[in-house]
Amino acid sequence: MKVRHILISQPPPETDKSPYADLINEHNLDICFRKFIKIESIGAREFRRHRIKIPDYSAIIFTSKNAIDHFFNLCEELRVQISEQMKYFCTSEAIALYLQKYVQFRKRKIFFGKNHFSDLLDVLKKNKTEKFLFPCAENHKKEIPQLLKQNRISFSVAPIYRSVPEDISDVDISKYQMLVFFSPFGIQALRLNFPNYQQGDTVIAAFGKATQKAAEKDGLKVQILAPTKTAPSMVMAMQEYLETLKNK
Questions:
Q1: Where on the phi/psi map is residue 172: left (φ > 0), alpha (ψ -120 to 50), or beta?
Q2: Where are the chain's structural domains?
Q3: What is the pTM of this model?
Q4: Does pLDDT of 48 surpass 80?
Q5: Dihedral angle at the C-alpha atoms of 79, 98, 126, 135, nearest 10 degrees?
């Protein structure tokens, strides 16, 4: 089957220098970007049920810009004043720089890793006397809390936002020969919006084992999986698959 129309369950790229651009030109593709999920705050009322008092903590761990936005919005809703002595530990420089939206960067103690949480772990271990708060999504990865426990770092998990399916019922889902998913919530959104969806000959691409597992649990066959040794990104995995089609 020839693949031309592809639906990617993410928002459109912010710039023209998208990694998908070369793919589109090389294989004459019509790629549509559509966000399948949205992020919403749990709100102050629900947060209070966790009995977490933000001023009790001396350091915060941020692993995403979403976490930063929702954390400071929550503080405003709770009327919590963040101490100038608060320390911030971020998984990447980009996330650390995003803090400038809410705090005076040069006047704060901000630490960051290269991109992965494991890079940040050595810095956290050097600050074991701090009491850490980890603002995250409700369905956060368990890996980070496990690593903090293993290294005897004092912390509390603070779920402050959640992923929920978007309304995509206006999409002509039968038009696409390939659907690309990046999280289990994308699979959930597909089934919620199209309860009678049948895969048929449609190619399903999944990023990450959790997404693959969710797709297969829903009865979908995954033909493209990333990351792999030869394709660390979804674009590269799609390129490999499209090349095999071309050579058939």
A1: beta
A2: 5-36+168-247, 40-163
A3: 0.75
A4: yes
A5: 50
